[in-house]
UniProtKB/TrEMBL annotation:
One cellular component term from this protein's GO annotations in UniProt: periplasmic space
Location in the cell: Periplasm
Name by which UniProt lists this protein: NitT/TauT family transport system substrate-binding protein
Family, as annotated: Belongs to the bacterial solute-binding protein SsuA/TauA family.
Keyword field contains S-adenosyl-L-methionine: no
Length: 338
């Protein structure tokens, strides 16, 4: 069974099981003067996802009359299952999820309505610093990579192909090490290169065990890498709620493009108590410089097309899915105008 079928079948089965205990009906009603509750799940806890942490801590959601109940799913399949089973209202997860679910024939489609990140958030870490790095240097080397079929892995293989490399033929890609153990594995000698997310990349640099030589995000261009999505039925039944949510995220994006890294790091610190402030500042600065966060939340058609091209090249786009089927840009367009 190929990757997207495994993902979609797992999500569908999980949703069926969880539906037995899922909350039913419309729980997001408000009384006079009370904040409306919105249940938000994030795929993982990551500095990369600063927009909604900022919106919570800066009070942007409360300004819109929303009380955000945040949980972390620790996995795209888990986040999607929670959404499909009505355990959460909105999920922050990779936009490719909507395509996987749509290809499985879900009766209530998942629809992306606001963009949180616009580039891949991983960096290429080498054992030695390289002032004139070229992707051809991966030839004949080993790369500690990501899970097969995941967007980071699809991006990695796409970038390599764009630079004339044949992944797995010209090099070895190591995919049998769990995400949480990858940084330690690289530090102990596994792989010549490492596709690292933050703060792992900065920690390796600080410890003198690795050097960031390239950004996958800057090389691949813009795409709806991580987005806020909801079931189509939720968007139709809660349009005002979704608009308020999007307004708050847009304000957070504005902040991320104007605030200094030190300020942003202080705001999101409550979500990363185990990360040193110095590393937190370094990571925020790196994401700002790599243009990871969009200036607005609109998912445009060109970005969506870029994502589908990457999926198609990786063999994960089995059937074309139209932009209008899984993207609803009206909320972001209104938030942008404000």
């Amino acid at each position: 069974m190929n990757t997207w079928k495994k993902f979609a079948c797992g999500v569908t089965l999980g949703a069926m099981l969880f539906t037995l205990t899922a909350c039913g009906g419309d729980s997001n009603t408000t009384d006079d003067g009370k904040l409306e509750t919105v249940r938000l799940t994030e795929v993982i806890r990551s500095i990369f996802y600063a927009p909604h942490y900022v919106a919570i801590e800066k009070g942007y959601f409360k300004e819109q009359g929303l009380d955000i109940q945040l949980d972390t799913a620790w996995g795209g399949d888990k986040a999607t299952t929670r959404l499909l089973a009505n355990q959460d209202d909105i999920a922050l997860v990779g936009a490719e999820t909507t395509i996987f679910v749509q290809q499985q024939g879900a009766p209530d489609a998942l629809v992306s309505f606001a963009q949180a990140t616009q580039r891949d958030g991983s960096f290429l870490v080498a054992r030695q610093s390289a002032t004139n790095f070229d992707w051809s240097q991966l030839k004949g080397k080993s790369l500690l990579g990501s899970r097969a079929g995941s967007m980071p892995e699809m991006v990695s293989e796409y970038v390599q192909k764009q630079h004339g490399l044949k992944p797995f033929t010209d090099n070895q890609i190591i995919q049998n090490i769990a995400f949480d153990n990858q940084a330690a594995a690289f530090a102990s000698g596994t792989g010549d290169f490492f596709q690292a997310f933050e703060p792992a990349a900065s920690l390796l640099e600080k410890q003198g065990q690795g050097h960031v030589v390239a950004s996958f995000g800057q090389d691949i261009g813009t795409l709806p890498y991580t987005v806020f999505m909801a079931k189509s039925s939720y968007l139709k039944s809660h349009p005002e709620t979704v608009q308020k949510f999007t307004n708050a995220v847009q304000k957070a994006q504005d902040y991320l493009h104007t605030a200094k890294p030190e300020e942003v790091a202080s705001v999101i610190k409550p979500y990363f108590t185990d990360v040193d402030q110095e590393i937190l500042v370094r990571v925020v600065k790196r994401y700002q410089e790599s243009d990871a966060w969009p200036t607005n939340t609109v998912i445009d058609q060109q970005e969506f097309a870029n994502m589908k091209k990457i999926m198609q090249t990786a063999g994960e786009l089995k059937k074309d899915v139209a932009y209008e089927t899984v993207v609803e840009p009206s909320f972001s367009e209104k938030a942008k105008q404000k």
